[in-house]
Structure formats: C-alpha cells, structure tokens
Amino acid sequence: MMDVNKYLAYWADRYYEDVTKNILPFWLKYGLDEINGGVYTCVDRDGTLIDSTKSVWFQGRFGFISAFAYNNIEANEKWLKASKSCIDFIEQHCFDTDGRMYFEVTAEGKPIRKRRYVFSECFAAIAMSEYSIASGDKSYAQKALDLFKNILHFINTEGILEPKYCKDIKMQGHSITMILINTASRIREAIPAAELDAQIDLSIESLQRYFVHPEFEALLETVGPNGEFIDNTMGRTINPGHCIETAWFLLEEAKYRNWDPKLTKMAVTILEWSWKWGWDKEYGGIINFRDCRGLPVQDYSQDMKFWWPQTEAIIATLYAYEATKDERFLEMHKQISDWTYAHFPDLEYGEWYGYLHRDGSVAQPAKGNIFKGPFHIPRMMIKGFMLCNNINKQL
Fold it and tell me: Which PANTHER family match (predicted)?
C-alpha cells in the first residue's frame, strides 16, 4: 500500500524546488530580454542564444507562467516583472492592424510570420488575466476578456482565418475546441463573463458529440463537420498527449462544478483511453501519435517522446486521483513521473531536454525553440504543487 500523504508531500516539495531553483531561474537568466522586453526561447543546452527570433506564443505563455507562479508559488517580484515585460512586448509589437497577432517576430518586435491560428491570441489572453490577478490591475482582466471576444469573432466569422484545406474539404480539429476550455477558464478566474461559460459549455458538448469515438476508444484529432470518422491518415490520428491534456482541462472544469459526475466520467474515460494508446509498454513514456486502426502513422516523429505529453500526463493523473481517490491513478502518476524524471532533466546545465528518441535517448539537446520554452514544464510543476497540497489537505 502506498503512503499517499507521504507520496504527495514528496512531490509537492520536489515541484516547488524544481520550479523555483531550476526552471524559472534558467529562463530568467537566459531567456528574458532585458533590452527589448519579452522572452527568447531558442537557446542551446547551456542557455546560449542560437536564434533571436521570438515566438509570439511564448510571449503569452511566459507572461502567464510568471504570473501563475507569483499567484500560486510565492510572490516573487522578479516573476511579476517578467510577466509584465512579456505583456508589454505583446501589446507594443505582436498585434497586426487587423487585430490578429503574429506568430514570430524579431528580437525588436518586427513581424516575421503570421499564421491562420489564434493560439497566439489565446496565450496572450491568459497572460493578461493572470497578470491582472497578480498585480491587482483589473484593466488587464478586461483586456483579456476583450481579446477573448475577438478570438471568438475570428474563428466564427467566415473569411477572417485562412482555411486549412480547400473549400470543398469540410472537417474540424480538436485543438481549438480544447484550448478554448482552458483559455476561458483562466480568464474567468480574473473576470467572470457569460461568454466564457458559454464557450466552455460549447467546447465540452463538441468534444462529446464530435471527437469522442467509443468505437475506437479514442478522442480523435480531426473529424468531419458532424463528427464523421474520416478514414485517412489524418482522420485516424490519435495524439495521446493532446487527449490527456484535454482530460485534465475537463477535470479542472468538473472540479469547478463541484465534481460534476457526468463531466468527471467523460474526462476520466478520455484519460484512460489515451493512456492505453500513448503509453509505450516497451520503453516507457508517452509517444506522439497513433493510428486508431493500428495502421502506420504518417508523421516521422510518431514514436518519439516529446517533453509536453509527459507533463500533461503528470497533471492529469493527479487530477484523476483527486476526482476519484482511486489509487490506480497515483500508480499511473508514479509510472509517468519516474520515467520522465529519469530521462528529461539535464542534471548538468539545468532545465529539461525536449526531444527524445523512443528509447529515451536524447535526440537533440537544445532547451528551447519556437515551440518549446517555459510553459509546459513549469505549468506542470505549479499545478502539481497545488494539486498535491490540496489533495493532502482533503485526506
């Protein structure tokens, strides 16, 4: 029998040490741009800058993380200042004249690339809402809500966002449906609004109606307009990390609703399905992609181990235990945590590697790029710290 209190206390302490002594100090030292504002993420193993291109996603992501740590770990003024630096950079440089945001900019903030997605806007919005809570400046909560309304306008108005496929190809993706749950719930912490609750309800309904496919025991990434199964490589794709992330977004919302039983069951089911698809029984860890019919996966990185699916599984298993008190989920938490901590942390230079081969060996050692930076790892540690302490108080 596991000593649950001792186990959770151990991980709470470890998450606290990791985020305060390793992860955030690494990015404050090597990522924060003291000249132009904002944050760099394209850094080598030892923190050396290898590309000054700035990911607009990460201006919002680190803006959020710094304030989230301030609100839930300790009131460190350096973190609050870092959050404000990222938000200032966003407001000064990252919006185009049409109200949409860029995807990449130069160190000084000159536009490089703009994409059809609204993820830059989502991350900027949660940064503003979290900074509002940390600073007490309610104007940033209103900015976050206004930006969220713009996001809904962009995605719901035909012709604003360039379609991914030709007009005769009708389909919908899981990513935007799930990210809007988290975006809305984070903003709601700073400023309640009917639009936020309505979008969460709509996303949950869409996930259940369209993307959950019991015939495959899977949450699919791409389906037809009415949830139709598309029998090609794209339509058959399962992204276990994304699905596990969705599971904990749903569990967080279920908790907000006093552990709504229907939503809790839906979330736990998605977690269990996705774990079966994602866990590598031979080498350990969560792999990137599977085909719901067991056919070969097209993506070349399909069996690699990326950093972020592991962090999502760590959060999700803690939430599932909090929801059910079933120790099976703590065993899953131990399984993923033991594997992750044995392979990803760089004990010499700090932070974590991002890309491993299937067997857990390092594929490339850089600590960041346009997509990897200070978000998934510190978010896992902050959420883990909070969850472990909250659960222990309940036991």
Answer: N-ACYLGLUCOSAMINE-2-EPIMERASE
**Other residues' Cβ atoms within 10 Å of the Cβ of residue 328:** 12
Q: pLDDT tier at 59 (50, 70, 90 boundaries)? A: very high
Examine the pLDDT at 169 and tell me if it is beyond 90.
Answer: no
- State whether residue 254 is helix, strand or coil: helix
**Band of residue 117 on the pLDDT scale cut at 50, 70, 90:** very high
Element (H, E) at 55: strand 54-55
**236 burial via Cβ count (<10 Å: 0-12, 13-18, 19+):** buried
Closest residue by Cα to residue 41 from 386, 307, 241:
307
Bridge partners (DSSP) of residue 291 are 237
What is the residue whose two structure tokens read 């049409």? 98
131: its two tokens: 């900074």
Write down the pLDDT at residue 110.
98
Of 392, 394, 391, 386, nearest to 16 by C-alpha is 386
Nearest in space to 360 (alpha carbons), one of 282, 283, 276, 300: 283
Residue 395: pLDDT over 90: no
Instruction: Please give the model's pTM, rounded to 2 decimal places.
Output: 0.98
* 292, two tokens: 């719901």
CA angle 380, 189, 91 (to 5 degrees): 85
b/e map 259-269, b = 16+ CB within 10 Å? ebeebbebbbb
Cα distances (angstroms) measured from residue 190 to each of 64, 143, 255 = 13, 11, 18
**Alpha carbons 191 and 15: distance in angstroms, whole number:** 28
Selection from 216, 95, 207, 233 nearest residue 151 by Cα: 95
